[in-house]
Amino acid sequence: MFQTQYSYKFDSAKHAEPKSELPSLTVPDMSYTVRELLEKFTSGGSLPPIDNQAEYEENPTFDDALSIDQDLTDLHQARRAVNKLQNDLLKLENLKKERQKEAQNKDAQQTIKELQNKLSLLDNSGVKKQANQLSKNPSQNDQENNVSTEHNK
Q1: 62, 4 Cβ separation under 8 angstroms
Q2: What pLDDT, in 10s, does the model give residues 93-143?
Q3: 5: helix, coil or strand?
Q4: What is the spatial distance between Cα 16 and Cα 61, in angstroms, rounded to a whole number?
Q5: What is the C-alpha separation between 28 and 34, in angstroms, rounded?
Q6: 3-state DSSP assignment of residue 74
Q7: pLDDT tens-digit map of 53-95
Q8: Element (H or E) spanning 54, and its range?
Q9: Residue 88 to residue 13: CA distance in whole angstroms
Q10: Alpha helix segments (H runs only) across the chain
Q11: What are the boundaries of each domain within the chain?
Q12: What is the C-alpha to C-alpha distance for residues 91 and 100, in angstroms, rounded to an integer?
């Protein structure tokens, strides 16, 4: 008889490490912060040794590594759900852009109305008429300015 991904029975006693009966040596707040590690490294201080031992199995099996408990129908349904979520996300992004454009248009329209109101106020106060007269007769304005400067001397 041979084993497959469906007939394999996991035995934790074979694969798990036995629990230690010794008391824990962990001390609260005994770890180094990233800043402390960098300071010790850059200043040439000693750091505690780091244990990087790899564990290898003598006869590894890869049956469990690629186990998929889904058939093509499940994968197709998952793909449709992902596509639906992507479409919903695109719709939300487009809606957000439209609302931003509407807000910009409202701001622009409000600014135009404010400028029109200010222009009408200027028209009513006669400032525009005076500005037009000044722009039509610049030589008269120069003469008036010369007279006022001579008078001040």
Answers
A1: no
A2: 999 999 999 999 999 999 999 888 888 877 766 655 666 666 666 555 455
A3: coil
A4: 16
A5: 17
A6: helix
A7: 777 777 767 666 666 667 788 888 989 999 999 999 999 999 9
A8: none
A9: 48
A10: 12-15, 34-43, 72-125, 127-136, 138-152
A11: 71-109
A12: 14
Tokens 């186990």 locate to 67
113 vs 119: CA distance, rounded Å: 10
10 Å Cβ neighbour count for 5?
14
Q: Report how far Cα 141 is from the mean position of its chain's Cα atoms.
A: 60
Give the tokens for residue 68: 């998929």
Alpha-carbon torsion (102, 103, 107, 113), positive or negative? positive
Residue 1's identity, in one-letter code, is M
Residue type, 147: V
CA–CA separation, 153 and 151 (whole Å): 6
Whole-number Å distance between alpha carbons of 73 and 89: 24
